[in-house]
Amino acid sequence: MPMETIASFEVARLNILDENGDTDIDLVPDLKPDRLVAMYRWMLLAREADQRMLKMQRQGRMGTFAPSTGQEAVSVAAAMAMGEKDWFTGAFRELGGRLVRGEPLVNVFLYYNGYEEGNLRPQGSADRLLPVNIIVGSQCVQAAGLGYAAGFRGEDAAVLTVFGDGATSEGDFHEGMNLAAVWNAPVVFLCQNNQWAISIRREKQTRSQTLAQKGIAYGMPCVQVDGNDALAVYRAVDEALARARSGDGPTFIEAVTYRLMMHTTADDPTRYRTEEEAKEWWDREPLVRFRRFLEKQGLWDKAKQDEMDQEIKAEVAAAVEEFEARDSFKADAPFDHVFGTDHAVIQDQRREFLARLEEVDNAQA
After folding, report:
1. Which of 4, 177, 183, 292 has the greatest number of C-beta atoms within 10 Å?
2. Contact indicator for 48, 291 with CB cutoff of 8 Å
3. Is 112 a catalytic residue?
4. How far apart are CA 166 and CA 139, in angstroms?
5. Roughly what angle, to the nearest 10 degrees, separates helices 33-58 and 230-245?
6. Does residue 115 carry a catalytic annotation?
7. Active-site choice (13, 35, 201, 272)
């Protein structure tokens, strides 16, 4: 018997906004002017906060963190496409999206300075925003579970999970994708393909022509978008979330972008990539192209930019001041959260820790 083709597939790519600020008018999402300006402001706030944290880290005023510079369009646009009841679970490079979802900026500073209190939020704030996931790909399994639960309860809600290209090489990614597909769970899997998994180039991770096509194996729609094009990201995520909420199951989106800075502040990217490569992507970065778009729409000018720059710098400075004024942290707080109930062995460890801390304090006095 001759061999026959039993299935064939294709992967589409969505581009709306180019580097010059020009658009395919037929594809531009229906967003009012104030929403477009808000999208730009969230991206600008994330960039300013990112750069301020980098300076603070170099000054010894903050711990190691993962900069999101260059990738603001992905998480900001995706978060703005979400509904109030939707869940957001990400990795560690979605600063803009987390701010959109209600995370106070001061919490970001607390978290990256080693205080677990950074995961505490005011009552009613960011209720459906899960903490940062450091374990690569782990949020994909969480998303599948959240989506299954939402469907089981009959909630009009979907789940957005964001991860890097390196996560697509992890087992949790494949397990989460498979479970969500089998359960027909309302989940949108959004990959930030920034070309590098720490120091491993994307081509060294997988032979797949695109990362988007990995969704095909699990029977879900997939699409690749320009991750530096906030309008394309918004449209793709908005459509995928609507599809999820309507009961049509999960979608996989690959957003092609670039990590303009280091993996974390403990990393030196010049050891494994060239400045010429980074410069090419700086020319495609999302903030400049979105500002050009707003200008061409008659929504922006230098005076408005200067005013917003001052507002954002003041907002970040206020968050820094609030963060550095905090001095009431409970030293033994981590012991409160090991188990949900009290355990003698944990209390013994707490007493040992506090005794040692007292010894250190006395020695320094």
Report:
1. 177
2. no
3. no
4. 13
5. 110
6. no
7. 272
